[in-house]
What does this fold into?
Amino acid sequence: MLFVGDDWAEDHHDVEIVDETGRTLARRRFPEGLDGITRLHALIGEHLPEPSGRGESVPEVVVGIETERGPWAAALVAAGYRVFAINPMSSARYRERHSTSGAKSDAGDAHILAEIVRLDRAHHRQVAGDSALAEAVKLAARTHQSLVWDRTRQILRLRSALREFFPAALKAFDELDALDSLQLLRLAPDPDTAARLTRRQLVAALAKAQRRAPEAGADRIQAILRAGEAAASTTGAGGVRRDRDRAGRGHRHPERADRRPRRGGGRAFWSSPGR
It folds into this structure.
């Protein structure tokens, strides 16, 4: 289970996620609206276990928030989270019990709400979403949530693969799921190809992705990719590359040493391993 404390204000939400032991997994501030709820789904998705594909149920996500009204709360309920409306008086009493200063802060209140639903949710009311409008929102919200979670998993897998195979890409591309990053990875999916990209190719790719100031971005990315290729030439894949270079300069593979054509009676023939 994951427990989320959501301290809302007029234009933003302070969020904290804790696990079943109370260990804090993440803290963020999100803007109100679709962008904020999308980023919240993505943050929760980062801490979900990888599905095994054997029919395991999705981990339960429990949210504590001090309101049950508005599109944000409705979207949380519709996404399938268990949402508990926590009375602000209860939050204040909990803060006084567990804090020597009793001082209020947005980040601290998010932690308090997460702890309330982790330890004491049985004594609070779960928000229901059973109206016709809520059912309509539920379909759209759950589809949106599933897409965000799927995208987050794909990004994490891509980041892991690049960290092993193409680390320079992690420095060159600010957001792996951004249109310009995907455009460039499609154009140059490996370090060797990326290092050979010309400035004109980079500018064209960034402009196609509607990146602002594509010229400046192209210079920065090209420098990073070529620096990464230079670093790789001394370790890892670079060692393999040097072996290939030596082979191309006349160093024969030991297993092929006996396969040179020999002349006998004016005819060329290949020696067999048994001869």
Observations:
- The chain has two domains: 2-147, 166-232.
- The longest helix spans residues 132-165.
- The first strand starts at residue 2 and ends at 8.
- Residues 237-259, 264-275 have pLDDT under 50 and may be disordered.
